[in-house]
Amino acid sequence: MSKLKQEWFLVAMVAAIALAMVSADVGKSGGILQLDQVTAIGIAMVFFLHGLNLSPKAIKAGVTNWRLHLYIQSATFIAYPILWLLFGDSLLAFMPAALAFGFCYLFVLPSTISSSVAMTSVAKGNIPAAIFNASLSSIIGVFITPLFIQLFMNLDGAELNLMDSVFSIAKLLLMPMIVGQLLRPLLLRFIEKHKSVINKVDKIVIILIVYNAFCDSVINGIWSEFSAWLLLYCIAICTLVLLFMVHGIQWGAKRCQFNKEDEIAAVFCGTKKTLAAGVPMAQVIFGSDPALGMILLPIMLYHPIQIFYCALLANRYAKRLAK
Description:
By secondary structure, the protein is mostly helical. The protein has 15 helices and no strands.
């Protein structure tokens, strides 16, 4: 039971998907719960809280190590997209297009903030560099993720749609973060006092978005193309991608002669992909596309796999450095 409490988020995501299969009319966009409206407000709240939690001093402390920043951002926004260029056609050949494009979307997402920094901290790595790079990745992702989607998925409407997406994502994610930063001096004591509750807000919003997306996809019959074998293939692909990137970044960090603390920051910031920003960004980019649930599936699978494996890796780093 205690294990279930610890992993309540993953359990709730699975429950949301299962519930969508039997109550799609309730959670669909424009349905009784009006979840498309509710989640829009929730997303703004989540990124407002992210802005409140970001420490300007810690970010400034990590600014100067430009070689490490370039290495991490290259892993996130160059190495991962190259995987799609190499293997995208193969994915499109053996799975539904919406699911294959879900992997494309996974590969072009920015890094996480909270878990990247948390794992770096557990592993005794360079925490200021982790905070700076995770924050920088989120900002770059607002502009570069829709651009990559435009280029790789051959979406119609070209420039106007792209600029609309960038503007909408900036308004949805960056503006609340900026407001949060501006109000941080006034609200810092309040958020520290209620940290345990605040840390659950983003997870609750993600669960509602996932439920809404899967209700829409069930209503539109998207899952008729899906099978249990395909789910296993997706899990295997996510695992192989993560292992390849983790050990590739470790190998590259040694060749670049980074110290162990910088290597740790590179591993945990360079291999993470954000579910918290990825889900709302997908809503903006793909709009009311009935295939949204399937597009989101790869990041939903990758998220728990990265958390599990990186937690083991962080513990291993910490033990080695303690010797």
